[in-house]
Write a structure and sequence with these properties.
Strand content: under 5%
Number of helices: 1
Largest sheet: none
Shape: rod-shaped
Structural class: mainly alpha
Helix content: over 70%
Distance between the termini: 42 Å
Number of domains: 1
Order of helices and strands: H
Length: about 30
């Protein structure tokens, strides 16, 4: 249902943000 899809999207979004932050952090360092 919508709620399940939303939860999956949030989880994937959080993972994407973590990866993006890690990549940016590595570039800055």
């Amino acid at each position: 249902g919508m709620s399940n899809d939303y939860e999956v999207a949030v989880e994937e979004g959080a993972t994407f943000i973590r990866i993006g932050t890690a990549l940016v952090g590595n570039e800055i360092d």
